[in-house]
Amino acid sequence: MNSLFLSKCRAGTRHLLLFVLVTFLTGCSTWFSRDFHEPEIQLTNIELVYARLLEQEFLLEFRIDNPNEHSLPVRGMTYNLDINGFSLGRGQSNQWLTVPANGSARFELRAHTNLWRHLKNLVALLKNPDQPIRYSLDAELKTGLMFNKKVPVRRQGSFTPGEYLHNSY
User: Fold this and answer.
1) What is the distance between the alpha carbons of residues 26 and 34, in angstroms, rounded to a whole number?
2) C-alpha distance from residue 25 to each of 13, 21, 72, 75, 169 (Å)
3) How does strand 56-65 pair with strand 104-113?
4) How far is the C-alpha of 39 from the C-alpha of 43, rounded, in Å?
5) Rg (CA), the chain
6) Please, what sign has the CA dihedral across residues 118, 121, 127, 132?
């Protein structure tokens, strides 16, 4: 009688586990279907937090747009931000947030850098403030809860320092 009872308990436990697994997987179904669209990520602001001789800290703000019908859990981001070929900052954030379905959310990262070693290059760039400066952002957005999906982000562009200098006076 004990073996019959144990086999029924095992079968019931297997059914319960299968039910729980299927329930969790339905929430992640967009990750495996062709209906999943990668989110759009834009660098929207760079703010200087502090500047010391050998270390500077910037606050990078991103906007994440989710074009999917389901909310998008974000578990963090790794990034590398270059200006004219030299690294402004690199690192990672493990900040969690959820981007609503067909919505957007803001995501902030703190970038630490040492511009002292690039001082000669920066001075040369700023001698002609009307000359555009190239930037590139290479990042990887970590999404998903149970099943990880990494979304690569590559953005390149340019900005003209003179436009910001003239606006600050």
Assistant:
1) 15
2) 18, 6, 14, 18, 55
3) antiparallel
4) 13
5) 23
6) negative
- For the beta carbon of residue 143, count every other beta carbon within 10 angstroms: 23
Question: Domain 38-167's class?
Answer: mainly beta
DSSP 70: S
- Strands 40-51 and 97-99, by their bridges, are unpaired
User: 8-22 pLDDT, tens per residue?
Assistant: 556 655 655 555 554
The CA distance from 86 to 84, in Å, is: 6
Place of tokens 């969790």: 24
Q: Convert the pLDDT of each residue in 36-57 to its tens digit.
A: 888 888 878 878 898 888 888 8
Give the pTM.
0.63
Instruction: Enter the tokens of residue 5.
Output: 């009872």
Statement: residue 148 has pLDDT above 60: yes
Q: What does DSSP assign to residue 147?
A: S
> Domain ranges in the chain?
1-36, 38-167
Geometric angle at alpha carbon 34, from 32 and 35, rounded to 5°? 100
Q: Is 35 helix (H, G, I), strand (E, B) or coil?
A: coil
Answer for the pair 71, 141: CB distance below 8 angstroms, yes or no: no
SS3 of residue 150 by DSSP: strand
Q: Which amino acid is at 3?
A: S
